[in-house]
Amino acid sequence: MKKIGPRTASILDAALPVFARYGFHKTTMVDIARAAGISRASLYLAFNSKEELFRAGSARAHQQTMSNVEDVLSRNGDVIDRIADAISAFQEGLIAPFSRSESAKELFDINMQLAADITTDARLKLLKLLSEALADAQAHGEIDLKALKASPIDVATLIAAAMDGIKHTISANGPSDDAMKLLMRVLKSALNSERRS
């Protein structure tokens, strides 16, 4: 996504809670303009349609979130703890904003219609970042994946698949972090037990 100015960023920030409140189909450009504190005409100068605005918002959210994920994974410390924090950052940036909405399923579906390429690119980047973190930890003797007969990308793919499964269990209370925390504990235990043997 190309760099956006503060005015566009302000519009996209204002649009997010409006979409979360009303859903995509019920949200109007007037609703978004009002939330952004600008006229409808000014909004149309920035975005030609609600679809274009939603896609731009998705691109911005994915870009910001992946930057946060990268920052978390680049820190020092236990690799599984960093991965758990990275997954939390991913969910907080891309799932949590809509998960408590009554229109959560509609919003995730619309995102896949309007911004599937953006979502796919972010997922591929997540897999790459997780895999690199695991490979680095293995190279430094922090973990040993050989006994599991798994490569770093295998483990990264498992983590991402579990995250996807949890995302699809959205409820009125939002997605549960408990299942991901359990997976991280199981993974840490398995990798630590392999190091001990």
UniProtKB/TrEMBL annotation:
Keywords: DNA-binding, Transcription, Transcription regulation. GO terms for molecular function: DNA-binding transcription factor activity; transcription cis-regulatory region binding. Signal peptide: none annotated. The keyword DNA-binding applies. Residues 28-47 bind DNA. Residues 5-65 form the HTH tetR-type domain. InterPro entries: DNA-bd_HTH_TetR-type_CS, Homeodomain-like_sf, HTH-type_TetR-like_transc_reg, HTH_TetR. Pfam families: TetR_N. This is TetR/AcrR family transcriptional regulator. It comes from Phyllobacterium salinisoli.
